[in-house]
Amino acid sequence: MTEYTPAILCGVIAGTVTRVLMLRTDTRQYPTRLHGKIIHIAMGLIAAALGAIAIPSILKKDFSAITFLTLAATQFRDVRNMERNTLQQLDGYELVPRG
């Protein structure tokens, strides 16, 4: 365990709990289907972990970790695009279109 482990764990826990609370309180902006909820919780956990690791990696000047964080941000964009495409396909099965 390093000196940054408690801070990283606190960041991951705080980010994940915040994401779960957001899913519970604001049902208009977040998905109601189980698939969407699972994706949002998983992405919240990953985002919290990456955010918690970002500060120690910058403090240690570990630029390979920063490169990894950039790659992870790209993956977030791809997952969001995949989720958008899935929701558009599901809209075709709805009786009443959105909007």
Structure description:
The protein is mainly α. It has one domain (5-91). It has three helices and no strands. Helix 1 (5-25) runs antiparallel to helix 2 and helix 2 runs antiparallel to helix 3. The mean pLDDT is 76. Pfam families: YIEGIA (PF14045). Keywords: Membrane, Transmembrane, Transmembrane helix. The chain crosses the membrane at residues 6-26, 38-59.
Record the SSE blueprint.
Elements: H1 5-25, H2 34-59, H3 63-91
Task: Give a summary of the structure in a few sentences.
Helices cover 77% and strands 0% of the residues. It contains three helices and no strands. It has helices at 5-25, 34-59, 63-91.
Distance between the termini: 51 Å
- Count of discrete domains: 1
What overall geometry do the principal axes of the alpha carbons give? Answer: elongated
How would you classify the quaternary structure?
single chain
Discrete helix count: 3
Largest sheet data: none
CA radius of gyration is 17 Å
Number of strands: 0
Element-level helix/strand string: HHH
Mean residue pLDDT: 76
Low-confidence stretches: none
Give the DSSP E fraction (strand runs of 2 or more residues): under 5%
